[in-house]
Amino acid sequence: MLKLLERQLRLHRLLRAGERIGIAVSGGADSVALLRAMAELAPELGIVPFVLHLNHRLRGADSDGDAEFVAGLARELGIEAAIESEDVAALASTLHLSLEAAGRRARYGFFLRAAREHRLDAVATAHTRDDQAETVLLRLLRGAGTSGLAAIHRSFPLAELAPSEAAAPSDPAVRLMRPLLAVSRRQVEEYLEAIGQGFRQDASNATDRFLRNRLRLELLPELEREYNPRLREALCETAEIAAAEDEMLEELAGAALGVCRDPEAGVELELIRRQPVALQRRMLRRLCRHAGLALDFAHLEELRLFALAAHAGKLELPRGFAATIVREKLKPSILRLKPPA
User: Fold this and answer.
1) Each residue of 236-263: pLDDT tens digit?
2) 151 CB-near residues (< 8 Å, 6+ apart)
3) Residue 237 falls within a domain, yes or no?
4) pLDDT of residue 311
5) Considering just the CA atoms, what is the radius of gyration of the chain in Å?
6) Three-class DSSP labels, 254-305
7) What is the tally of structural domains in the chain?
8) If pLDDT is split at 50, 70 and 90, which confidence band does 167 have?
9) Which of 167-171, 315-319, 337-341 has the lowest mean pLDDT?
10) At what angle do helices 29-45 and 185-195 cross, to 10 degrees?
């Protein structure tokens, strides 16, 4: 695992010598393996590892035990650590989110604060090849386009994932990276066994309460037995292809939009019309994203057809937004997004 991790770090240029890298450690096998491996590689890579742990307070004494275990491991390795606690259940209730969504929100907010406070250049999480395969399959079941099938990106601006109120102008440079995406869970377990490193078991990973757990424990093994023994590999290849194509399409859409990126100023209808359908959708999605509006496929397609028809009137969109066509003499027709009143 160690050699594979080092090869991925260098191949994808995930870090540079002299950087301070936060390692997100839950106490589970994957994150403990990432910490031990990064600590071992640190002198050769020229990086300074830093441990990050957020206690979600969802499992009582077990959650506290995880925090104590991570703190102890950091001390043993001689690595600085930032360990915080947040009531994720209360956050979920306040914001009307699922526990999973509230947990992600809390973690990314914590990562961003810690990166700012401790001058971290990047934060590494321990998503593995198995996590990637599960995510692609889950998104296929729910319905996804190229962006969704790209699943877990190898590197991403942390500020784009953190809660908006936690972000600051200086944050976009901080990266979130997943250096274990080419490593399987079995390789993680073999590595930990080889070095005699223990880890914490989270009982919630074995319950069928969560959809991802049912997919991991039941659906994926069944599909591998009955349909494709290389399914995980195939799903990860799908994610690699989708990620590269998604990046290219985003660049093309941005170039096509040019300076027309202000949702209220709008975009020329002719600019949209002369693009292939895929870029039409991308351009409109980017325009909506700049306005703070995320549209599902049905609403996005409704907006695209509204723009192409160029009829007078107004199209009502989710969350109180609306789209209008503006026509003025001797000027091109414009599609504008109007925010809620």
Assistant:
1) 999 999 999 999 998 998 888 875 555 5
2) 132, 135, 136, 139, 239, 242, 243
3) no
4) 77
5) 23
6) HHHHCCCCCCCCCEEHHHHHCCCHHHHHHHHHHHHHHCCCCCCHHHHHHHHH
7) 2
8) low
9) 167-171
10) 70
The helix or strand, by DSSP H or E, that contains position 331, with its residue range, turns out to be none
Residue 211 and residue 291 in one domain: no
- In DSSP terms, 124 is beta-bridged to 23, 177
Three-state SS string over 27-44 comes to CCHHHHHHHHHHHHHHHH
Among 186, 211, 226, the domain boundary falls at 226
Residue span of the structural domain in which 332 resides: 258-338
Flag whether 211 is in a domain: yes
Residues in the chain: 341
- Are residues 301 and 200 both part of a single domain? no
Tokens of 276: 């292939």
**pLDDT tens, residue by residue, 103-162:** 999 999 999 999 999 999 999 999 999 999 999 999 999 888 898 999 999 998 888 877
Domain assignment present for 231:
no
| pLDDT at 97 exceeding the cut of 60 | yes
Residues 83 and 181 in one domain: yes
Angstrom distances, CA of residue 58 to CA of 17, 47, 111, 214: 37, 33, 19, 20
Same domain, 222 and 262: no
pTM metric for this prediction: 0.85
